[in-house]
Amino acid sequence: MSLDLSVLAGEAVYLVAFGLLALGIFALIAHGNLMKKVIGLTIFQTAVILFFVATSAKWQATLPIVPEAGAAGPAAGYMNPLPHALMLTAIVVMVATLGVALALLVRLHRRYGSFEEDDLLDRVE
Amino acid sequence: MIRHHLPALLVVVPLGTGLALPLLATLSSRLAWPATVAAGAITAALAVAGVFQVLAGGPVHYAVGGWPPPWGIELVLDPLSAFVAAVVAAVSTCSLAYAGGLDDPALRGRLGGGPALCLLLLAAMMGIVVTGDLFNLFVFLEVAALATYALIGAGGGRALLASFRYVILGSLGASFYLLGVGLLYALTGTLNMADLAARLPAAEASRLVPVAVGLIVMGLGIKMGVAPLHGWLPDAYTYAPPAVVALLAPVATKVAAYALARILFSVLGVSFVLDASVLGGALAWLGAGSILVGGIMALRQDDLRRLLAYSSVSQMGYIVLGIGLATANSLAGAYLHILNHALMKGCLFFVAGAAAQRLGGTALADLRRMHRLMPVTTACLVVAALSMVGIPPAGGFFSKWYLLLGAVESGHWVFAGVILAGGLLAVVYMFRVLEHVCLEPRAADDHGGGHARVGRKDASPAVLLPLVVLAVGIVAAGIFNASIVNGLLRLAASVGVG
C-alpha cells in the first residue's frame, strides 16, 4: 500500500506553515524567558522556510536534473529548484542569527545569572 | 573599466577591506582604523562618482557574475540609489573617522573586530541600496543586522540586553519581509525588481498582493524604527558604544526607508500606493503618528542619547510621511530628509559621544557648562539643533518645507499640521538640551571657588574634524538644497510615476 503524498502538493502545507508562524509569534510574545523567545523565533523562521519550499512542490513532478543535454521534458514535469536554493541561503542567515542570539544569551547569563527578562531588567539597573 | 563595475565596487571595497582587516591587524593593530577610514573614503568617492555618472549617462546596470537578469542578481545605480549610496557612504566615512578618533575601548579588540564589523555594516548598507533583487535585499538586510547586533552588544551590560531585544525584533522584521517576498514570488515567479514590476499588473487582482506588501512594510518598519515598531531603538542607541551609535543612528534606519521607497515606487508604482490600495494613507498616518509619538517621548527624556533616539523615531516619521503622501514634492522632501537627518543626527550623536568621554556622562545634568568646557563641540551641537528645529539656512528647514508643500498640494491639511507640530516639539526638546548646555551654572561651582578658571577639555582633533565636517555639511546641504533637489531628487522622485 503506497502512501498518498499528494497532500504535500496541496494547500494543507500552507496551513501548517501559517500555524507554525502563529505559534512562533505566540512564543515570542507570551514568554518572559529569553531562551524561549529564541526558540519561538526559530519556529517562526522555520515556518517561513517551510512556506518557501512548499511553493516549489508539484504533484507528479520530478527533481530538476536533466540526465543529458537536450533530454529535458516540459517544465511542468520538474519541481522548481529556485526556492530550495534561496532557502539554503536563508538557513545560513538564520543559523548566524541564532548563533549571535545564543552568544548574547551566554554573556547575559554569565554576568547576571538569569534568562528571565524580569530578573535581568532588575539586575541590570 | 571602473565605470562598468561601479555598482559592484561599492559593495566589494568595504566588504573586502573588512574581511582583510583582521589579517592587517595582526601585522599592526594601529593600522586597523586608518585602513577602515580609507576604505570608507574610497567607497564614498566611488558613490559620488556614481551620482555624476548617473546624471550624465543614465542608470547603470550590473549583472553579478555575468548572469543576465531576471535570472541573475542585478545591481542598479539610478538617481535614487546613487543619491542614497552617496549619502550613506559619505556620512559613514565621517562616522568611521570619528569612531577611530574616539578610540572606544569596546571596539579595541585585538584582531580589529570592531572596525571590521563597521565595514561589514557599511558593505551591507551599500548592498541594500544598489541591489535590484528582492531576495538579495533580504540577505544584505540580515548581514547589516548581524553586524549591528555584534556592534551594539560590544557595549556589554545593558547593551547586551538591548542587542538581544534587537536580535529578536530585527529577525522578526526580516522574516516578515521574507514572507512578503515569498508571496510575491509565488504570484509572479520572479525576484528581480524590474521584472516583478512588469509582471505584477497581471497578478494585482489577487488578494495576496496587499498581504505581501503589508508584510514587507511591517518588516521594513521594524528596521526603520517608526513608532509603534520602534521598541528596540531607544535602548540600542542609549547603551551601545558611542562610536557604534555614531555609525548606526545617521544611516542604518535610512537604508531601510530607502528599501521601502524602492519597493513601493519601483516595483508597485505610485498608482498602486495612492489609488489601488489604502497603503499610501496608512503609511502617511504611520509617519504622522511616529512624528508625534517620537517628539513627545523625546520631551520626557533626561539623557541626551535617549532624547536623540526618540528624536530619530520622530524624524523617521517625516520620511515615512513623505513616502506615504507620494507627491513629487513630498518625495523630494523625504529623500532630502534622508540626507539632512543623516547629517544632523550624525552630528548630534558625535557630540553625545564626545561629551560622554570628556564630561563623564550624557545625562542632561552632566552637560552643564559644556559651552565653556567644549566650545567647538557645542558650536556643532547648536548648528545641528537649529537644523533639527528647521531654521534656515540649516538643511532641516528645506526638507520639511518640501514635505509641507507636498501635504498642502495634495490637500492633506492634517498632515501639514502634524509636520508643523513636529517642528514645534523639536524646538522644545532641542532647546531643552541647549538650555542645559549653555545657560545653567554647575551647582557645585556656586559654593566652590566662585568663578574658578574653567579648564577647556574639548575633544581631540581626530574627533572634532568629522564633527565639524558634518556641521559644515548641514549648512551646505541647506544652501545648495535647490541644486540637489532640482538636479537629482526630482529625477529620483519620478521613479515609478505613470
Description of the structure:
The complex is a heterodimer of chains A (125) and B (498). In chain A, α2 (34-55) packs antiparallel against α3. Helices cover 64% and strands 0% of the residues of chain A. Chain A has helices spanning 12-30, 34-55, 82-112, 117-124. With 125 residues, chain A is mostly helical. Chain A has four helices and no strands. Chain B has a two-stranded antiparallel ribbon. In chain B, 77% of the residues lie in helices and 2% in strands. Chain B is globular, with a radius of gyration of 22 Å. Chain B has 498 residues and is mostly helical. Chain B has helices at 2-27, 32-57, 79-102, 113-130, 134-153, 158-188, 193-203, 208-224, 233-239, 242-268, 270-276, 279-299, 304-325, 328-359, 370-373, 375-389, 396-409, 413-438, 443-446, 461-479, 481-493; strands at residues 60-63, 74-77. Chain B is built from 21 helices and two strands. The chains are: A mainly alpha (125), B mainly alpha (498). The interface between A and B is medium-sized, with 32 and 28 residues.
Can you give me a brief rundown of this structure?
Chain A is mostly helical and 125 residues long. Chain A contains 4 helices and no strands.
